[in-house]
Each structure stands twice: as C-alpha cells, then as structure tokens.
Amino acid sequence: MVRVGVVGYGTMGRVHSQALQAIPEAQLVVVADADPERRAQAQRDYGVDTVSSIEELLRAEDIDLVDICTPTYLHESHFAEAIKAGKHIFCEKPLARTLEEGQRMLELSSGYDKKIGIGHVVRFMPAYESIRKAVLDGEIGGAAVARTFRGGAKFPQGWHDWFADFDLSGGVILDLTIHDIDYLRWLFGDVERVYAKTTHGRTTAHLEWAFILLRFKNGVMAHVEGSWANYPGEFYTTLEIAGEGGMVSYDSRKTQPIHGVSIDGGPVAVNGSSSVSADSPYYLELKDMVDAILEDRPPRVTVEDALATLKVTLAAVESARTGQVVEL
Ligand SMILES: NC(=O)c1ccc[n+]([C@@H]2O[C@H](COP(=O)([O-])OP(=O)(O)OC[C@H]3O[C@@H](n4cnc5c(N)ncnc54)[C@H](O)[C@@H]3O)[C@@H](O)[C@H]2O)c1
To answer: Nearest C-alpha to atom 6 of ligand 1 is from which residue?
Structure first.
C-alpha cells in the first residue's frame, strides 16, 4: 500500500484526492493546506487528518508519497522539503515557475533513490495517447503540421487569485498551453525555434490569450493556441495533425471526438476512435505513479522531461515578451 499525503487542497488537490480513492494500492492519509476552510473541506470529504503545512505533514505522518498540488511558485520549495524527508514525489505541472527553479529541482533529484513524477496529464488522455500511437505507427505518413487549441471563457479561480499574478503563475502560456507543448514534445521530440504572441499586458489579467509557433528539429511545424478569453461556453480542446498520407483530429466537444482521413479519402486507423476511455486521466497518471513505486521503475513523466517542456514553454513566454524568435 502506498500512503499518500496531498499538499494543497484547491482545484487539483481535490481532483487528485478523488482519483486516489479509485486506486486500490493507494491510500490518502493526510492533507496539508494553509487555509482552514480547505482543511475542513478535506476532513468532510474523506475523513482524513489535516495539517497546515508541508513541514507538519512530513513530521506527523508515516507517508510514502507526497503529492504536490500547491500553486506553481511553491513547487520548488515543497519539492525540496519532500526530498529532504526522503519521500516519493508527484508534482503538478508546470515543474516550476522559472527555469532556474526547475534546474535546481533537477539537481536535487539527480541520484535520488525515490520515484518522482510530474503531472503532465495530457500524456494520460486516452484520445491523445491513441493519436500519438497512430502517428508514430505511420498511419498518416510523415507528420508535417500540427495545430492545437485549449481554453474556455472561465478564468481559473485560484487561491487569492494567484493565476492573475503573472509573476506567480506565468500566465496562460505557462499554465495552460504547456499541456500541448508537452504533448507535442512527447510526440515529435526536440523543439528548435519558438515564436509567440499573447495579450498579456494589453488587457486585464483575467482575459489572456496566446498563440505559439513551434518548429521541431524533425521539421514539424506546430501552432499552439491557449485561451482564458473565449466566448462563454465550455472549456474544450482540439488537436489536428496533418501528414504526407492523411490527417487525424480530435475535438473534445464531439461525441465521436477522433477523426482520421487518408489523402485518398479512406479512413485512418486510430485505436479508440469509436469511444474514448472513461478512465480519468488524473486517475491514470496517479496510478502510473503508484505502480512506478511498487514496480521500481520510472513514472511516465520524469523531472528531466518536465524540465525540457518547461524550457520550451518559457522560451514562448520570452518570445511573447520581446517579440523575437527564440532559438533553442
Ligand atoms: N494538470 C492540470 O490539469 C491542472 C489544472 C489546474 C491546475 N494545475 C496546476 O496545479 C497546481 C495547483 O493549482 P490549483 O488550480 O489547484 O490551485 P488552487 O489555488 O485551486 O489551490 C491551491 C491550494 O494550495 C493551498 N496553499 C497555498 N499555499 C500553501 C502552502 N504554503 N501550504 C499548503 N497549502 C497551500 C491553497 O490554500 C489552495 O487550497 C498549479 O501548479 C497549477 O498549474 C494543473
């Protein structure tokens, strides 16, 4: 049994706690949150012990895995505390707010004999996983162009509105489009050039929109768009990948979300195209983490991998700030 302590019982702390209930090999034993109302909520939801800080959590409980769900700017310090205590760690994306923080986290974790996984959850979304497999299996021939969208009208409701403070959250690029940047890196490998635009600084912090152009070393071009400024309506995501022999697409608003067509009009085989697995990707990523501990293997997303994604994403933030292309 893997005994888990969740740090931060906001949006993601609640999602993780719920996902952990469905994992037979995991047990949520304690929740740490700085806010007394959130602690009371965790107590009501799961009857678990609650404490007010990670230090207290690490002192008080015999836990195996620390699950860090605090705001991005706190990841490095909470990660360092968990390492000092010798725990396995799962940390929400982005790895850190800055590249320097991320690099220090990689240094701290090198040679560490416990497992560390980072919550790049799109890698666990069954539709995205099936499309990746189809592309890698050559179903659309050599991939050439990709386009992604992720967003909605609702600005994230964070603790003390921390998402609206660019210095704390990194805005829509670091918080939201990082999901697609990570997925595209997982599929296409290294990125060599980045160019980005954002409304950051031109409108209120609660209405941010961004687009990013990526050129991968393998020649693929990608257009990544993220929005906290959409028309009223549901949050949704789309993905399109065109290759020499056809294209595949995904649209989370559709009942048949995956579509594939070859250049001659025939179908493209994507497993799972008729139905998308009902398993929550948050359950799947935490199950992978728990299994990694029990099977003594690395989790799907390592610190090194998450740092590479952070580097590309912060290059986009930099490009949007300066108006210049960033070469990696
Ligand atoms: N993977 C995803 O789909 C996804 C979605 C949303 C957010 N996130 C990421 O998850 C992280 C958390 O985001 P969120 O939306 O849950 O934020 P949130 O503001 O909803 O929750 C943060 C929680 O941390 C608590 N907290 C603050 N400081 C603390 C401290 N020092 N010690 C203990 N608790 C403290 C707050 O009281 C709050 O309950 C962020 O890094 C965010 O980027 C990931």
So the answer is: 12
